[in-house]
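[Discussion] Sanity-checking designs against the backbone

I'm trying to build intuition for which residues belong where. Below is a C-alpha coordinate string of 476 positions. I'd appreciate it if someone posts a full sequence so I can compare it with mine line by line.
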Protein backbone atom coordinates (compact mmCIF):
# COMPACT_ATOMS: atom_id res chain seq x y z
CA UNK A 1 0.00 0.00 0.00
CA UNK A 2 1.43 3.32 -0.93
CA UNK A 3 -0.12 4.89 2.15
CA UNK A 4 2.18 2.64 4.18
CA UNK A 5 5.13 4.22 2.42
CA UNK A 6 5.79 7.65 3.91
CA UNK A 7 7.53 10.32 1.91
CA UNK A 8 11.24 10.47 2.65
CA UNK A 9 12.23 13.59 4.57
CA UNK A 10 14.42 14.73 1.72
CA UNK A 11 11.84 14.49 -1.02
CA UNK A 12 12.24 17.36 -3.45
CA UNK A 13 9.71 16.71 -6.15
CA UNK A 14 10.70 18.28 -9.42
CA UNK A 15 9.38 18.15 -12.87
CA UNK A 16 11.80 18.83 -15.61
CA UNK A 17 9.72 21.75 -16.82
CA UNK A 18 9.56 23.38 -13.41
CA UNK A 19 13.20 22.70 -12.66
CA UNK A 20 14.24 24.05 -15.98
CA UNK A 21 12.12 27.14 -15.87
CA UNK A 22 13.17 28.10 -12.37
CA UNK A 23 16.80 27.21 -12.87
CA UNK A 24 16.92 29.04 -16.15
CA UNK A 25 15.39 32.18 -14.70
CA UNK A 26 17.80 32.12 -11.76
CA UNK A 27 20.88 31.69 -13.84
CA UNK A 28 19.81 34.00 -16.63
CA UNK A 29 19.35 36.68 -14.01
CA UNK A 30 23.05 36.61 -13.23
CA UNK A 31 24.93 35.25 -16.25
CA UNK A 32 23.09 36.31 -19.36
CA UNK A 33 25.98 35.72 -21.74
CA UNK A 34 27.08 32.33 -20.46
CA UNK A 35 23.84 30.40 -20.64
CA UNK A 36 22.86 28.69 -23.85
CA UNK A 37 20.30 26.23 -22.60
CA UNK A 38 19.05 23.31 -24.60
CA UNK A 39 17.05 20.52 -23.06
CA UNK A 40 19.63 17.92 -23.94
CA UNK A 41 22.40 19.77 -22.09
CA UNK A 42 20.67 20.81 -18.88
CA UNK A 43 22.78 18.75 -16.51
CA UNK A 44 23.54 21.31 -13.80
CA UNK A 45 22.99 21.00 -10.93
CA UNK A 46 24.49 17.54 -10.67
CA UNK A 47 21.86 16.19 -8.28
CA UNK A 48 18.15 16.96 -8.47
CA UNK A 49 16.53 14.76 -5.81
CA UNK A 50 18.20 16.26 -2.72
CA UNK A 51 19.83 19.59 -2.03
CA UNK A 52 23.63 19.34 -1.95
CA UNK A 53 26.31 21.84 -0.90
CA UNK A 54 30.04 22.29 -0.37
CA UNK A 55 31.49 20.05 -3.12
CA UNK A 56 34.77 18.21 -2.58
CA UNK A 57 35.83 16.11 -5.60
CA UNK A 58 38.40 13.29 -5.45
CA UNK A 59 39.75 11.37 -8.43
CA UNK A 60 40.34 7.66 -7.79
CA UNK A 61 40.65 4.67 -10.15
CA UNK A 62 39.10 6.34 -13.19
CA UNK A 63 36.17 7.95 -11.39
CA UNK A 64 35.47 11.30 -9.79
CA UNK A 65 34.09 10.83 -6.30
CA UNK A 66 32.15 13.85 -5.14
CA UNK A 67 31.70 14.44 -1.42
CA UNK A 68 29.00 16.94 -0.52
CA UNK A 69 27.01 18.28 2.35
CA UNK A 70 23.24 17.99 2.36
CA UNK A 71 20.87 20.88 3.00
CA UNK A 72 17.60 19.71 4.52
CA UNK A 73 14.43 20.61 2.62
CA UNK A 74 12.93 23.92 3.66
CA UNK A 75 15.99 24.95 5.69
CA UNK A 76 16.18 28.48 7.06
CA UNK A 77 19.72 27.96 8.35
CA UNK A 78 22.66 25.68 7.52
CA UNK A 79 20.64 22.76 8.88
CA UNK A 80 22.86 19.88 7.86
CA UNK A 81 22.90 16.41 9.41
CA UNK A 82 24.77 14.19 6.99
CA UNK A 83 27.13 14.11 4.04
CA UNK A 84 26.62 12.41 0.68
CA UNK A 85 28.86 10.66 -1.86
CA UNK A 86 28.36 10.61 -5.63
CA UNK A 87 30.63 9.35 -8.39
CA UNK A 88 30.98 9.52 -12.15
CA UNK A 89 33.19 8.13 -14.89
CA UNK A 90 31.99 10.65 -17.49
CA UNK A 91 31.16 13.87 -15.58
CA UNK A 92 27.48 13.80 -16.59
CA UNK A 93 26.01 10.52 -15.33
CA UNK A 94 26.42 10.48 -11.54
CA UNK A 95 25.89 7.49 -9.24
CA UNK A 96 24.25 8.11 -5.87
CA UNK A 97 26.19 6.29 -3.13
CA UNK A 98 23.94 7.52 -0.34
CA UNK A 99 25.13 8.83 2.99
CA UNK A 100 28.09 6.95 4.46
CA UNK A 101 28.86 9.70 7.00
CA UNK A 102 26.59 11.66 9.31
CA UNK A 103 26.61 13.51 12.61
CA UNK A 104 25.80 10.17 14.25
CA UNK A 105 29.23 8.88 13.12
CA UNK A 106 30.82 11.30 15.59
CA UNK A 107 29.47 10.50 19.06
CA UNK A 108 30.83 13.83 20.32
CA UNK A 109 29.19 15.99 17.63
CA UNK A 110 25.84 17.70 18.11
CA UNK A 111 25.12 19.63 14.87
CA UNK A 112 26.40 21.33 11.73
CA UNK A 113 27.58 18.73 9.21
CA UNK A 114 29.33 21.43 7.18
CA UNK A 115 31.98 21.63 4.46
CA UNK A 116 34.65 18.92 4.37
CA UNK A 117 37.05 17.14 2.05
CA UNK A 118 38.15 13.52 1.58
CA UNK A 119 41.60 12.34 0.45
CA UNK A 120 43.16 8.99 -0.23
CA UNK A 121 46.40 7.82 1.32
CA UNK A 122 47.86 4.31 1.40
CA UNK A 123 44.59 2.76 0.27
CA UNK A 124 42.50 4.47 2.92
CA UNK A 125 40.13 7.38 2.58
CA UNK A 126 40.18 10.16 5.16
CA UNK A 127 37.26 12.59 5.31
CA UNK A 128 37.82 15.81 7.28
CA UNK A 129 34.66 17.63 8.34
CA UNK A 130 33.65 20.52 10.61
CA UNK A 131 31.00 19.76 13.23
CA UNK A 132 29.87 21.28 16.49
CA UNK A 133 31.45 19.69 19.56
CA UNK A 134 28.61 18.97 21.99
CA UNK A 135 30.90 19.34 25.01
CA UNK A 136 32.31 22.75 24.13
CA UNK A 137 29.64 24.18 21.83
CA UNK A 138 32.45 25.14 19.41
CA UNK A 139 33.08 24.07 15.85
CA UNK A 140 35.79 21.41 15.61
CA UNK A 141 37.36 19.35 12.83
CA UNK A 142 36.70 15.60 12.93
CA UNK A 143 38.23 12.93 10.71
CA UNK A 144 36.49 9.77 9.48
CA UNK A 145 38.21 6.86 7.75
CA UNK A 146 37.18 4.10 5.37
CA UNK A 147 38.79 1.45 3.16
CA UNK A 148 36.50 2.52 0.32
CA UNK A 149 35.80 5.92 -1.27
CA UNK A 150 32.08 5.26 -0.75
CA UNK A 151 32.39 4.17 2.86
CA UNK A 152 31.12 3.24 5.31
CA UNK A 153 33.20 5.75 7.25
CA UNK A 154 33.94 5.54 10.98
CA UNK A 155 35.22 8.15 13.37
CA UNK A 156 39.00 7.70 13.28
CA UNK A 157 39.65 9.23 16.69
CA UNK A 158 36.49 9.34 18.79
CA UNK A 159 37.26 13.01 19.44
CA UNK A 160 38.05 16.12 17.41
CA UNK A 161 41.30 16.15 15.45
CA UNK A 162 41.66 19.85 16.11
CA UNK A 163 39.34 22.45 17.60
CA UNK A 164 39.47 26.23 17.62
CA UNK A 165 35.90 27.18 16.76
CA UNK A 166 36.63 27.51 13.01
CA UNK A 167 35.42 25.54 9.99
CA UNK A 168 35.90 24.24 6.45
CA UNK A 169 38.89 21.87 6.35
CA UNK A 170 40.80 21.20 3.13
CA UNK A 171 43.68 18.74 3.00
CA UNK A 172 46.62 18.60 0.65
CA UNK A 173 49.45 16.04 0.41
CA UNK A 174 52.61 17.46 -1.10
CA UNK A 175 54.98 15.55 -3.39
CA UNK A 176 57.33 14.90 -0.45
CA UNK A 177 54.51 13.15 1.43
CA UNK A 178 53.93 15.96 3.92
CA UNK A 179 50.20 16.50 4.40
CA UNK A 180 48.66 19.81 5.40
CA UNK A 181 45.24 20.58 6.82
CA UNK A 182 43.99 24.12 6.17
CA UNK A 183 40.76 25.54 7.56
CA UNK A 184 39.19 28.67 8.97
CA UNK A 185 36.59 31.40 9.15
CA UNK A 186 37.29 34.18 10.13
CA UNK A 187 41.00 33.26 10.26
CA UNK A 188 42.97 30.89 8.06
CA UNK A 189 44.99 28.12 9.69
CA UNK A 190 47.14 25.19 8.74
CA UNK A 191 48.69 22.30 10.58
CA UNK A 192 51.13 19.62 9.41
CA UNK A 193 49.44 16.23 9.49
CA UNK A 194 51.47 13.15 10.32
CA UNK A 195 51.63 10.26 7.85
CA UNK A 196 48.80 8.53 9.74
CA UNK A 197 46.57 11.44 8.64
CA UNK A 198 44.84 11.43 12.02
CA UNK A 199 47.41 13.29 14.13
CA UNK A 200 49.64 16.30 13.61
CA UNK A 201 53.01 17.72 14.55
CA UNK A 202 53.44 21.22 15.85
CA UNK A 203 50.48 23.41 16.60
CA UNK A 204 47.97 25.08 14.32
CA UNK A 205 49.61 28.06 12.59
CA UNK A 206 47.70 31.15 11.54
CA UNK A 207 48.32 32.21 7.95
CA UNK A 208 48.76 36.01 7.84
CA UNK A 209 45.71 37.47 6.10
CA UNK A 210 47.36 40.35 4.27
CA UNK A 211 45.74 42.29 1.46
CA UNK A 212 48.68 41.36 -0.77
CA UNK A 213 47.96 37.71 -0.07
CA UNK A 214 44.17 37.67 -0.08
CA UNK A 215 42.90 40.89 -1.68
CA UNK A 216 41.20 43.92 -0.18
CA UNK A 217 37.70 43.93 1.27
CA UNK A 218 35.97 47.22 1.84
CA UNK A 219 33.18 48.01 4.26
CA UNK A 220 34.16 45.62 7.05
CA UNK A 221 37.00 46.85 9.28
CA UNK A 222 37.06 43.47 11.02
CA UNK A 223 37.70 41.64 7.73
CA UNK A 224 40.21 43.70 5.73
CA UNK A 225 40.94 40.91 3.22
CA UNK A 226 38.65 39.04 0.86
CA UNK A 227 39.27 35.68 2.52
CA UNK A 228 36.02 34.43 4.04
CA UNK A 229 35.97 30.60 4.24
CA UNK A 230 36.04 27.37 2.26
CA UNK A 231 39.74 27.04 1.29
CA UNK A 232 40.72 24.47 -1.38
CA UNK A 233 44.47 23.90 -1.69
CA UNK A 234 46.32 22.03 -4.43
CA UNK A 235 49.53 22.14 -6.44
CA UNK A 236 49.94 22.43 -10.21
CA UNK A 237 53.22 22.70 -12.12
CA UNK A 238 55.08 23.56 -8.92
CA UNK A 239 52.69 26.37 -7.98
CA UNK A 240 50.48 26.13 -4.89
CA UNK A 241 46.88 27.33 -5.28
CA UNK A 242 44.47 28.37 -2.55
CA UNK A 243 40.96 28.87 -3.92
CA UNK A 244 38.45 30.24 -1.40
CA UNK A 245 35.05 31.81 -0.81
CA UNK A 246 35.63 35.57 -0.80
CA UNK A 247 33.78 38.45 0.81
CA UNK A 248 30.46 38.12 2.50
CA UNK A 249 27.72 38.28 1.62
CA UNK A 250 27.11 37.29 -1.12
CA UNK A 251 30.34 35.42 -1.63
CA UNK A 252 32.34 35.00 -4.79
CA UNK A 253 35.21 32.59 -5.45
CA UNK A 254 38.76 33.96 -5.54
CA UNK A 255 42.25 32.51 -5.37
CA UNK A 256 45.81 33.11 -4.29
CA UNK A 257 49.02 31.33 -5.21
CA UNK A 258 52.31 30.68 -3.41
CA UNK A 259 55.71 29.14 -4.11
CA UNK A 260 55.25 26.76 -1.17
CA UNK A 261 52.46 25.12 0.86
CA UNK A 262 52.75 27.63 3.68
CA UNK A 263 53.06 30.74 1.52
CA UNK A 264 53.79 33.53 1.07
CA UNK A 265 50.44 33.88 -0.71
CA UNK A 266 49.73 36.36 -3.50
CA UNK A 267 46.18 37.33 -4.39
CA UNK A 268 45.33 36.43 -8.03
CA UNK A 269 41.70 37.48 -8.46
CA UNK A 270 38.27 36.06 -9.21
CA UNK A 271 37.53 32.48 -10.22
CA UNK A 272 33.72 32.73 -10.14
CA UNK A 273 31.80 35.98 -9.65
CA UNK A 274 28.83 36.22 -7.31
CA UNK A 275 26.09 34.32 -9.14
CA UNK A 276 23.36 31.79 -8.66
CA UNK A 277 20.94 32.67 -5.85
CA UNK A 278 22.98 31.39 -2.91
CA UNK A 279 24.82 33.85 -0.67
CA UNK A 280 27.56 31.28 -0.11
CA UNK A 281 29.64 29.47 -2.66
CA UNK A 282 32.27 26.79 -2.16
CA UNK A 283 35.06 25.63 -4.51
CA UNK A 284 36.50 22.24 -5.41
CA UNK A 285 38.93 21.68 -8.29
CA UNK A 286 40.31 18.50 -9.88
CA UNK A 287 41.89 17.31 -13.10
CA UNK A 288 40.22 14.22 -14.61
CA UNK A 289 40.92 12.42 -17.89
CA UNK A 290 42.90 15.34 -19.27
CA UNK A 291 40.55 18.17 -18.33
CA UNK A 292 40.17 20.52 -15.37
CA UNK A 293 36.88 20.88 -13.51
CA UNK A 294 35.54 23.51 -11.14
CA UNK A 295 32.82 22.42 -8.69
CA UNK A 296 30.69 24.96 -6.82
CA UNK A 297 27.18 25.38 -5.44
CA UNK A 298 24.21 27.64 -6.08
CA UNK A 299 20.47 27.83 -5.40
CA UNK A 300 19.48 26.59 -8.83
CA UNK A 301 16.80 23.98 -7.99
CA UNK A 302 13.15 24.77 -7.29
CA UNK A 303 12.97 25.89 -3.66
CA UNK A 304 16.69 26.60 -3.83
CA UNK A 305 18.45 29.45 -2.07
CA UNK A 306 21.09 30.22 0.54
CA UNK A 307 20.14 27.27 2.73
CA UNK A 308 18.86 24.92 0.02
CA UNK A 309 21.81 24.70 -2.30
CA UNK A 310 22.88 22.46 -5.17
CA UNK A 311 26.31 21.41 -6.42
CA UNK A 312 27.24 22.04 -10.05
CA UNK A 313 30.36 21.69 -12.22
CA UNK A 314 32.06 23.44 -15.13
CA UNK A 315 35.00 22.34 -17.27
CA UNK A 316 37.75 24.93 -17.67
CA UNK A 317 41.29 25.35 -18.99
CA UNK A 318 44.11 27.11 -17.18
CA UNK A 319 45.66 30.04 -18.97
CA UNK A 320 49.14 29.44 -20.35
CA UNK A 321 50.71 31.26 -17.38
CA UNK A 322 48.88 29.01 -14.89
CA UNK A 323 46.25 31.56 -13.93
CA UNK A 324 42.64 30.44 -13.62
CA UNK A 325 40.11 32.00 -16.01
CA UNK A 326 36.90 33.56 -14.73
CA UNK A 327 34.28 30.80 -14.78
CA UNK A 328 30.52 31.41 -14.92
CA UNK A 329 27.73 29.14 -13.76
CA UNK A 330 25.82 27.39 -16.53
CA UNK A 331 22.81 25.08 -16.75
CA UNK A 332 24.60 22.90 -19.25
CA UNK A 333 27.54 21.90 -17.06
CA UNK A 334 30.54 19.90 -18.25
CA UNK A 335 30.59 17.94 -21.52
CA UNK A 336 30.41 14.17 -21.28
CA UNK A 337 33.71 12.32 -21.27
CA UNK A 338 33.17 9.24 -23.43
CA UNK A 339 29.88 7.33 -23.40
CA UNK A 340 27.95 5.01 -21.14
CA UNK A 341 27.93 1.27 -21.91
CA UNK A 342 24.37 -0.15 -21.77
CA UNK A 343 25.61 -3.72 -22.18
CA UNK A 344 27.05 -3.91 -18.68
CA UNK A 345 24.97 -3.61 -15.54
CA UNK A 346 24.19 0.01 -14.73
CA UNK A 347 22.86 1.12 -11.40
CA UNK A 348 19.40 2.73 -11.66
CA UNK A 349 20.77 5.52 -9.44
CA UNK A 350 23.34 6.44 -12.14
CA UNK A 351 21.72 9.34 -13.97
CA UNK A 352 22.24 12.71 -15.56
CA UNK A 353 18.85 14.04 -14.53
CA UNK A 354 16.01 12.70 -12.43
CA UNK A 355 12.48 14.02 -12.41
CA UNK A 356 10.24 13.13 -9.48
CA UNK A 357 12.36 10.23 -8.25
CA UNK A 358 14.15 9.58 -4.97
CA UNK A 359 16.81 7.10 -3.93
CA UNK A 360 17.19 4.88 -0.90
CA UNK A 361 19.42 2.02 0.31
CA UNK A 362 18.44 -1.26 -1.37
CA UNK A 363 18.00 -4.33 0.83
CA UNK A 364 20.08 -6.37 -1.64
CA UNK A 365 22.94 -3.83 -1.54
CA UNK A 366 23.77 -0.40 -2.91
CA UNK A 367 21.03 2.11 -3.61
CA UNK A 368 17.82 1.93 -5.63
CA UNK A 369 15.63 4.50 -7.32
CA UNK A 370 12.22 4.66 -5.71
CA UNK A 371 9.22 6.80 -4.84
CA UNK A 372 8.34 6.64 -8.53
CA UNK A 373 5.00 7.95 -9.70
CA UNK A 374 3.31 8.15 -13.08
CA UNK A 375 5.32 10.37 -15.45
CA UNK A 376 8.54 10.40 -13.42
CA UNK A 377 11.70 9.64 -15.33
CA UNK A 378 15.48 9.41 -15.25
CA UNK A 379 17.75 10.57 -18.05
CA UNK A 380 20.96 8.66 -18.77
CA UNK A 381 23.15 10.64 -21.08
CA UNK A 382 25.26 9.47 -24.02
CA UNK A 383 24.33 5.78 -24.02
CA UNK A 384 26.36 3.95 -26.71
CA UNK A 385 24.01 1.35 -28.22
CA UNK A 386 26.22 0.80 -31.27
CA UNK A 387 24.48 -1.27 -34.00
CA UNK A 388 21.49 -2.03 -31.82
CA UNK A 389 19.98 -3.48 -28.65
CA UNK A 390 17.60 -6.42 -28.54
CA UNK A 391 16.50 -6.76 -24.92
CA UNK A 392 16.29 -4.71 -21.74
CA UNK A 393 16.50 -6.29 -18.30
CA UNK A 394 15.82 -4.49 -15.04
CA UNK A 395 15.93 -5.42 -11.38
CA UNK A 396 12.65 -4.14 -9.97
CA UNK A 397 10.36 -4.35 -6.96
CA UNK A 398 6.85 -3.14 -6.28
CA UNK A 399 4.63 -3.16 -3.25
CA UNK A 400 1.72 -1.80 -5.26
CA UNK A 401 0.16 -2.66 -8.61
CA UNK A 402 3.45 -2.02 -10.42
CA UNK A 403 3.74 -0.05 -13.63
CA UNK A 404 5.58 0.19 -16.91
CA UNK A 405 9.12 1.26 -17.69
CA UNK A 406 9.12 3.02 -21.04
CA UNK A 407 12.47 3.22 -22.81
CA UNK A 408 12.57 6.46 -24.79
CA UNK A 409 15.30 8.15 -26.80
CA UNK A 410 16.19 11.85 -26.85
CA UNK A 411 13.55 13.22 -24.51
CA UNK A 412 10.94 12.08 -21.97
CA UNK A 413 8.47 12.05 -24.89
CA UNK A 414 10.92 10.67 -27.44
CA UNK A 415 10.68 7.52 -29.53
CA UNK A 416 9.73 4.44 -27.53
CA UNK A 417 12.19 1.57 -28.12
CA UNK A 418 10.90 -0.76 -25.41
CA UNK A 419 8.28 -1.21 -22.74
CA UNK A 420 8.74 -3.36 -19.66
CA UNK A 421 5.87 -4.25 -17.39
CA UNK A 422 6.59 -4.50 -13.67
CA UNK A 423 4.14 -6.54 -11.55
CA UNK A 424 3.53 -6.45 -7.84
CA UNK A 425 6.52 -8.35 -6.45
CA UNK A 426 5.30 -8.66 -2.89
CA UNK A 427 7.08 -5.63 -1.45
CA UNK A 428 9.13 -2.53 -2.17
CA UNK A 429 12.31 -4.49 -1.47
CA UNK A 430 11.14 -7.84 -2.92
CA UNK A 431 13.36 -7.80 -5.98
CA UNK A 432 12.78 -9.63 -9.24
CA UNK A 433 14.16 -9.37 -12.76
CA UNK A 434 12.03 -8.44 -15.78
CA UNK A 435 13.10 -8.55 -19.43
CA UNK A 436 11.44 -7.11 -22.52
CA UNK A 437 12.28 -6.80 -26.25
CA UNK A 438 13.89 -3.65 -27.62
CA UNK A 439 13.84 -2.34 -31.17
CA UNK A 440 15.25 0.78 -32.76
CA UNK A 441 17.87 1.64 -30.18
CA UNK A 442 21.12 2.27 -32.08
CA UNK A 443 23.96 4.75 -32.04
CA UNK A 444 24.67 7.00 -29.07
CA UNK A 445 21.51 8.33 -27.45
CA UNK A 446 20.22 10.02 -24.36
CA UNK A 447 18.11 7.29 -22.78
CA UNK A 448 15.03 8.17 -20.77
CA UNK A 449 13.52 5.58 -18.44
CA UNK A 450 10.00 6.93 -18.10
CA UNK A 451 7.69 5.34 -15.58
CA UNK A 452 3.97 5.08 -16.21
CA UNK A 453 1.04 3.49 -14.48
CA UNK A 454 -1.77 4.24 -12.11
CA UNK A 455 -1.72 6.59 -9.17
CA UNK A 456 0.65 6.44 -6.21
CA UNK A 457 4.04 4.82 -6.10
CA UNK A 458 4.57 2.33 -8.89
CA UNK A 459 7.86 0.52 -8.59
CA UNK A 460 11.50 0.62 -7.49
CA UNK A 461 14.50 -0.07 -9.73
CA UNK A 462 17.90 -1.29 -8.58
CA UNK A 463 19.78 -1.79 -11.87
CA UNK A 464 19.31 -2.30 -15.60
CA UNK A 465 21.17 -3.73 -18.57
CA UNK A 466 20.58 -4.15 -22.34
CA UNK A 467 21.72 -7.01 -24.55
CA UNK A 468 23.07 -6.16 -27.95
CA UNK A 469 21.56 -7.36 -31.24
CA UNK A 470 19.18 -6.13 -33.87
CA UNK A 471 16.52 -8.83 -33.61
CA UNK A 472 14.28 -6.91 -31.21
CA UNK A 473 11.10 -5.27 -32.42
CA UNK A 474 10.09 -1.72 -31.71
CA UNK A 475 6.97 -1.53 -29.58
CA UNK A 476 4.00 0.33 -30.95
O1 LIG B 1 27.51 24.53 4.36
C1 LIG B 1 27.76 25.24 5.56
C2 LIG B 1 28.75 26.32 5.32
O2 LIG B 1 28.32 27.16 4.29
C3 LIG B 1 30.11 25.83 4.86
O3 LIG B 1 30.88 25.29 5.88
C4 LIG B 1 30.63 27.07 4.24
O4 LIG B 1 31.75 26.86 3.43
C5 LIG B 1 29.43 27.59 3.51
O5 LIG B 1 29.33 26.97 2.24
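Best answer:
Here's mine. Compare freely.
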Amino acid sequence: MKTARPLPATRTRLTRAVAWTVGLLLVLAVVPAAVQPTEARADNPIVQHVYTADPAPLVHNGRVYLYTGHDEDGSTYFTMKDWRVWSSADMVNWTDHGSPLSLATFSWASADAWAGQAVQRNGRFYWYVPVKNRATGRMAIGVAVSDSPTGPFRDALGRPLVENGEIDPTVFIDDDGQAYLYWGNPNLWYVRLNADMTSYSGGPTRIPLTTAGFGTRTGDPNRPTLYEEGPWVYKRNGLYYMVFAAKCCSEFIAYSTAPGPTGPWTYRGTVMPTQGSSFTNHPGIVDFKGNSYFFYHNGGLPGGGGYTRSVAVERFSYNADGTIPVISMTNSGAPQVGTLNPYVRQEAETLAWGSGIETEPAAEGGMNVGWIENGDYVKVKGVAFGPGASTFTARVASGSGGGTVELRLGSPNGTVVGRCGVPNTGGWQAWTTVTCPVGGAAGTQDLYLRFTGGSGYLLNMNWWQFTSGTTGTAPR
